[in-house]
Amino acid sequence: MDRSWKPNVTVAALIERDGRFLMVEEETEDGLRFNQPAGHLEEGESLVQATIRETLEETAHRFVPEYLVGVYQWPRPQGDITYLRFAFGGRVGEEVPGFELDDGIVRAVWMSPEEIRATADRHRSPLIVQCVDDWLSGRRYDLDLLRHYD
Asked: Could you list the residue ranges forming a coiled coil in this record (predicted)?
C-alpha cells in the first residue's frame, strides 16, 4: 500500500445574500474560472479558520461560518489530484475598503443560482454547483460536528 498519497484538503464558503451567491473570478492555468471563495487548509489552522481567511483574501469580505454544508471528495479527471472539500455556509459582512485581493483573483461577484449554472463551463470544479444545490436544499450541519485540537 502506497502511504505517500494524500488528498488536498480545501475549504469553501457558501455565502448567499438576497438570492445571490458571492463568487470569485480567478486566473487559472485553464483561463478565467469561477469558484466559491475557497482555498487550501494551511498548517496549524482549523477548517473554520481557513474558511474565514480564504474568504477575506479572495473577496475582501469578513465571513462568519455558521454551518457545515457538506464534505466533498473529487478526483480531478486528470487523475493527478484528489480534493477533499469542506464547504461552510454563514454570514458575511460588508466589503473591507482598500483590501487587496489574492494574486490571481480578478474580482468578487454576486451571482444568482441561474447565473452560476449558466457559467458551469467556466467553473474550477463540478463541486461549485453541487455545493449551491446542497445549500438551497437546506443542508446545514452544526459546526460542533468538527473537532480541532492544537
From this structure: none
